[in-house]
Amino acid sequence: MVSRVRVWLNRTYAENVFFMDQLRRNPSDRAVEIHATHGDADSPVLAAADTAEPEPEGLSPAGYVEYALAQCRRRGIDVFVPRLHQTAIVAHRADFAAAGTALLAPTPEAVAVFEDKATAYEAVRSIGVPVPPWWRVRTADELLSAVEELESAGHRACFKPASGAGGVGFRVITRAPFSLTQLSGFPSPSVPLDLVLRALEEADEEAAGQVDWLVMPRLEQPEVSVDCLTGPDNRVRMAVGRTKNGRRRGFTVHERWLEPAQRIAEGFGLHYLSNIQFRMYGDQPVLLDVNTRPAGGLHQLSLCGINAPWAAVQLALGEDPGEIEPPFLGQDYTVVSGPRPLRPVSLPAQRAREPLLPAVPAPAPEPAGAAPAQTTPRATASA
Known about the structure:
12 helices, 18 strands, alpha/beta, six-stranded mixed β-sheet
């Protein structure tokens, strides 16, 4: 009899409820039990898991590794998908292996390269993958110089943190003065240059010391995110591009996107699931960003007949799924939010030095036709 697989997702994005759904609906018909931890007691990920715990707050990276190892031993975790403190965790892969847990994460070297976007751009350019022009800035003078150089070449300047995930901190520079126009409609990523320069000049020493931005041209659509599955032998088993052009989404297996993504995944040891993003600089695709973790939109590959989360778990367990190609490309689509149930009662907050609480089973689905409790909170999966 084939034993069930126990998978743990630590503090992860709400969209990974779909990652969990796909693990349970795996084509091998293997029993999967999911453990989840999070700092937000009302995360839909906790409600979607079979067992759930609040994470302790205030732990150092080293302290979090000890906590994670204890979780793996206590819960009998077979595969751990780390997002929080990924850098510290992958440095202890041997310790997790000794506890019987495989890490679904890249090598420490790969994580280190792509933690810092400037380092990543330099490294990727060295293997022949095109990158946009960029400037690393820490002061008002450096920002103004970079913006003026970009604008003189006919580009619109933008900036983002040199390290960080998703679109956090991304802003587009405008010369238009701040006015009521900025206060109508939805919030915009555009920010007047004079306000940014003033903020930099007036920042205290501590705040100014945290400024570490990349300034670059505003790249054009389409944006193509290539989801890759790479084995520990550095061979890519799957590479499929998800296209984004405004609201419209789609899929591509064109070599202009897949070839540079595969070169990066294989060249830098991006084992298991990674997401490599490109945009257009003129008529050329250039690297935008590299995520050393599963993308929040990975489940969208199910529209192409692919269950990437399960294939990755198989690889982590030493069961090679072989080459994975989409049997078809799904039709164009868009993304909308929808409700996901939360736990009827929030998990209690947990302080770092208190004893760990026992795992709490997720509530069983209500029988068909049963009236839902009026007090049950709801949340969208994109929260």
